[in-house]
Write a structure and sequence with these properties.
Helix content is 70%, strand content 15%. By secondary structure, it is of the alpha+beta class. Among the domains are: 3-154, Band 7 domain (Tetrahydropterin Synthase, Chain A, 2-Layer Sandwich); 351-426, no CATH class. Helix 2 (95-114) crosses helix 4 (126-142), helix 5 (162-350) packs across helix 6 (352-375) and helix 6 packs across helix 9 (418-426).
Length: 427
């Protein structure tokens, strides 16, 4: 089925056939492929590690050895001509196939180089051997589109023990040289030691002489120095004691100064505490007391003003009441006076009739006064004759008899005949 085919960055895609005069190659991309008329191939671009083992190869001097090397190879993709060469040889082949072909090629070059070198050269100078194999193999494999990245020798062995003998001979050689060197070194060391001993003794004697002279000079100078030292020490001790006394005095003064400062600070703190307490007292006691006193004073003034206003209002009310009472008394007196005057005129005009009228008005009161004693009596006993009334009627009759007798009594007192006066009044 026609379509796009893709490949990763570690792979090359090759398309050949219709529409392409030369194979179309792409690395890490895609190509449009028509399967019926075009053929598609792939090349792996990963690094391939190949092991190169060469056994029983005779070197330049006819000694058979075994060499094992390791190479890192990959298909060249930087240039199309190398990629085309690799496509012609390895397209659609597996990594194992590529590894086998390159391994055989490298093994042949390794075998050829081993035949041109001695065992000693290969064993001792592996780097030179590796470089020769790398250069020959790289040139040859490049024509196949393969790049040799690196080549190293892992091991060099032989089946006859030549390398071991070579090592033993070399070891004996080295040991011999070491023994000779050690003997020569001991000899030289003995000579040097004797010379050194002689020089040491001479130096020791000379040193003792110089030491004695130095000791004498030292004692002489030491005595001088000791005298000067004692003098200086005495002076120093006196100066030290004097300085110590001054220092102690200064310390005491500074201590006293510190105490004075601390005392001053304490005084300031106490003063601040007193001020704080005074302010607290003013805030919590004095100010509230003053406020309460001010409030009490204002309330007293208000009460006093109220009382004064009430007293003034009361006095004014009393004055107004007195004036009203006086006016009322005056008006009543005037009214009574006018009434009396009118009564006097009436008396003068009617005389007996007025007297009768006045008496008639007073009769109920007189009757009430006559009957009043009866109200204070708890028990009344009435005694009547054989033909008289009995009971309450008798008591009422007695009161009426008293009332009937009043006109005659009034006439006797005032001289006014009540019967005539009443007739004149009715006329």
């Amino acid at each position: 089925m026609a379509g796009f085919y893709t490949c990763g960055p570690n792979e090359a895609l090759i398309v050949a056939g219709c529409c392409h005069a030369k194979p179309k190659m792409v690395v890490g991309g895609r190509l449009f492929v028509i399967p019926c008329v075009q053929k598609i191939g792939r090349l792996p671009l990963n690094v391939i590690t190949t092991k190169i083992s060469t056994k029983n190869v005779y070197t330049l001097k006819g000694v058979a050895i075994n060499v094992v090397g390791t190479a890192q190879i990959k298909i060249l993709s930087s240039e199309k001509r190398y990629l085309m060469s690799a496509a012609e040889l390895f397209m659609n082949r597996s990594v194992t196939d590529i590894n086998g072909i390159c391994s055989e090629t490298l093994e042949g070059h390794q075998r050829a180089i081993m035949g041109t070198m001695t065992v000693e050269d290969i064993y001792r100078n592996r780097k030179a051997f590796s470089e020769q194999v790398f250069q020959v193999a790289a040139t040859d494999l490049a024509t196949m589109g393969i790049k040799v990245i690196s080549y190293t020798i892992n091991e060099v062995t032989d089946d006859q023990g030549y390398l071991k003998s070579l090592g033993m001979a070399r070891t004996a050689e080295v040991k011999r040289d070491a023994d000779i060197g050690s003997a020569e070194a001991k000899r030289d060391a003995g000579i040097k030691e004797a010379e050194a001993q002689e020089k040491r003794m001479a130096a020791e004697f000379e040193n003792k002489i110089e030491t004695a002279i130095a000791q004498r000079d030292y004692l002489l100078k030491k005595a001088t120095y000791d005298g000067e030292t004692q003098t200086k020490k005495a002076q120093s001790d006196m100066a030290y004691e004097l300085q110590s006394a001054k220092t102690q005095q200064r310390i005491k003064e500074e201590t006293m100064q510190i105490k004075v400062i601390e005392r001053q600070k304490q005084i300031k703190i106490q003063e601040q505490e007193i001020i704080r307490k005074q302010r607290e007292l003013e805030a919590n006691v004095i100010k509230p007391a003053e406020a309460e006193a001010y409030k009490t004073e204002k309330l007293a003034e208000a009460e006093k003003n109220k009382r004064i206003i009430d007293a003034e209002a009361q006095a004014e009310a009393i004055t107004m009441k007195a004036e009203a009472e006086a006016f009322a008394i005056e008006a009543k007196a005037k009214a009574e006076a006018e009434q009396m005057a009118k009564k006097a005129d009436a008396w003068n005009e009617y005389k007996d009739a007025a007297m009768v009228d006045m008496i008639l008005k007073q009769l109920p009161k007189i009757a009430a006064e006559v009957a009043a004693p009866l109200q204070n009596v708890n028990k009344v006993t009435l005694v009547a004759g054989p033909n008289g009334e009995v009971g309450a009627a008798k008591l009422t009759g007695e009161v009426l008899e008293i009332v009937r007798a009043l006109p005659k009594i009034i006439e006797e007192i005032t001289g006014v005949d009540m019967s005539k006066a009443m007739k004149i009044s009715q006329a």
